[in-house]
Design brief:
The protein contains 3 helices and 12 strands; from the N terminus they run ααββββββββαββββ. The protein is mainly beta and 243 residues long. It starts with 13 loop residues before the first helix and ends in a 35-residue tail after the last strand.
């Protein structure tokens, strides 16, 4: 087979790889983790991250589990998952949580399963953006990535159609399309990579929400929060407002 002219660079080397002669890394060729890394490459000049900015809680699960924004400017910064009962303070991604405008529900009684959708809202390839979520099956110690939306020309606006939820041992990606919602159900068991074939006996599902109208009955985040929040007025000092 002839060697392709496209080279898929590691996420940590994406910026340099995009400039290498003879090695073109296309957005469409990246995996979900690389999309998350790439989403911040166009923002270095626009944002001046401030390590002294006061920490914001952008999503609270309960009294000891929450997502925090640190080292940021205008809501763009480093997003950390925290579990104070387990002494977990794990960086998940760098970006702007509120670019994702859909609903987020985390209601897993075991505390093992967590999900955080992201939205790049940046320049993508010719075929549009691919948006991803980070998920964990070990209480937030480690995260994997999966794309939930492809070929989007309006990432933030399109995200309003989504609800991404964790309930017990399942992860739901729910997309509202016209008068119905369509659901992708992923299994969550310890260590699973849902981007690959599932282990024997483990299955996912896809269905119309109207065919199972009670599948989300009683599912809600303990804190009651179902959207990211951020105070964009908290900014790094001496930053000129962009026009």
């Amino acid at each position: 087979m002839a060697m392709s002219m496209k080279c898929l660079a590691p996420a940590s080397l994406l910026i340099a790889a995009l400039t290498l002669a003879g090695c073109q890394t296309d957005y469409e060729d990246m995996n979900a983790a690389q999309h998350a890394a790439y989403s911040r490459t166009g923002n270095f000049d626009a944002y001046k991250q401030d390590p002294n900015a006061p920490i914001q809680v952008t999503y609270r699960i309960d009294d000891h589990r929450f997502l925090s924004l640190e080292n940021y400017d205008r809501c763009y910064g480093d997003n950390y998952y925290n579990d104070t009962s387990l002494a977990i303070h794990q960086k998940v991604w760098t970006g702007k949580t509120i670019n994702y405008r859909g609903r987020l529900v985390i209601d897993d009684p075991s505390g093992m399963n967590i999900v955080f959708p992201t939205n790049s809202n940046t320049t993508c390839g010719d075929r549009g953006c691919k948006e991803s979520f980070a998920y964990s099956t070990d209480s937030g110690r480690t995260f994997r990535w999966l794309d939930y939306k492809q070929h989007s020309s309006r990432p933030s606006e399109d995200s309003e159609k989504f609800t991404i939820a964790v309930a017990s041992n399942k992860l739901y990606v729910i997309e509202q399309i016209l008068n119905n919602a369509y659901v992708m159900q992923y299994p969550l068991v310890s260590g699973i990579d849902i981007s690959k074939p599932y282990p024997p006996g483990i299955e996912g599902d896809g269905f119309s929400a109207s065919s199972r109208p009670t599948f989300m009955s009683g599912v809600h985040t303990p804190s009651g929060q179902d959207h990211y929040s951020c105070d964009a007025s908290l900014r790094a000092p001496n930053v000129t407002t962009l026009q």
